[in-house]
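#struct-help
A.M.: can someone run this one for me? Single chain, 116 residues.
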Amino acid sequence: MSRLVRALPDIARLLGRLVRDPTLPRGAKLALAAAVVYLLSPLDLVPDLLPFLGVLDDLAIAAVVLDGILNWVDRRVVLRYWPGTPESLDTLARVAGVLSVWLPSKVKSRIFGRVA
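D.P.: on it. Structure tokens below:
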């Protein structure tokens, strides 16, 4: 989980770049834009001033969006915009997958759609 916390700036950068990609479906772009706004916003569901708990809402959003992207968007597209190494993305994918199991894959597929 600490890897995901440390990667939040890179994830926000990835989301911002993916929003501008012409191959992504509109629903995915809206989800990504909303996630970027939420992650960058100083207003959170759980205030960041609370130790540990303050980061949980950001982690949940980042995990769900990252898991959705990695499962529904072509990996080549994601790697084009990922600021880190493919290995670091794989590590984050495992963490995000564990943290986002509560969201049904049917919902993720509706949001992100399969992008070739």
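A.M.: thanks! The chain has a mean pLDDT of 80.
D.P.: also worth noting: Residues 2-112 form one domain.
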